[in-house]
Amino acid sequence: MKKVLIIDDDMNIQELLRLYFEKDGFDTATVGRGDLAEVEIVNQKPDVVILDLMLPGKSGFDILRDLRKKSDVPVIMLTARGETLDKVVGLELGADDYVEKPFEPKELLARVKAVLRRIDAITKKSERDESRGELVKADDLIVDRSRYSVFLAGKAIDMPPKELELLHFMVSHPNRVFTREQILDNIWGRDFFGDTRTVDVHVKRIREKLDLIDHPNWQLKTVWGVGYKFETSEGQTA
Question: How confident is the model at residue 196, as a pLDDT?
């Protein structure tokens, strides 16, 4: 059962939405003050948040700004009709959708379902990619070969294809040492006419990009006289 958290100081709206969502099979929780919202989000662990912008104690904008520092739970804003700036700011802060007040509960319910379907589809695709080995993770590092994307601590890292493929290969085999020749064969193929310095150059460029963000639990490590390994905290020795 999906859970929705309704953050709105209007008790009538709280009750109306609770009835609509529970009738449709949702578990619901409500909170009427902005300064209590963060605690409720932590305690309730909702699948989606409905967030009014005008709240006592703390504004919806501040709640959303703080929430996005630690969570990607989908958020649908409730905005005053015609307040374009509110919509723009809310979306830029990370809201997934908005509904104008006054609204039809059926429309809000439909928006919530649409957002949840989208999130479920993204999650399922990530799981399929991970099961096929296209997506690999190490702590807060995500390398997705199907989309040719790299994220570290939630920040996108730009990498050309060969750098990404090399990193994907190393992350796929944590704590295993590979010679430069083995890396060349796996990434460039046996018909490649370059030399092993190509590997060194690519590793150097990868490190320069990743080392801009702290990553204490892993490193792309040089094993002197041999090659490289992607060392994780589990594989480090004193």
Answer: 84
Amino acid 126: pLDDT: 53
Which of 35, 27, 123 has the alpha carbon at shortest distance from 72?
A: 123
Cite the DSSP H helix spans in 98-160: 105-131
- Below-70 pLDDT ranges, the chain: 81, 121-133, 191-194, 235-238
* 224 and 179 assigned to the same domain: yes
Q: Does residue 42 sit in helix, strand or coil?
A: helix
State the pLDDT at residue 238: 36
- Look at residue 101 and give its three-state secondary structure: strand
CATH of the domain at 193: 1.10.10.10
150 and 219 assigned to the same domain: yes
| Helix residue ranges per DSSP H, the chain | 11-23, 37-44, 60-67, 84-93, 105-131, 161-172, 180-187, 197-210
Question: For residue 161, what are the domain limits?
Answer: 135-235
Contacts of 97 (CB under 8 A, 6+ apart): 74, 76, 77, 111, 114, 115
Q: Are residues 32 and 97 in the same domain?
A: yes
Same domain, 144 and 220: yes
Tokens of 35: 């300064």
Total structural domains in the chain? 2
Q: Which of 129, 144, 177 is the last residue of a domain?
A: 129
pTM to 2 decimal places: 0.56
- Rounded to 10 degrees, the C-alpha dihedral 209/210/214/216 comes to -150
Of 32, 39, 35, which Cα lies nearest the Cα of 18?
32
Q: Which pLDDT score, from 0 to 100, does residue 206 have? A: 96
The pLDDT assigned to 218 comes to 96
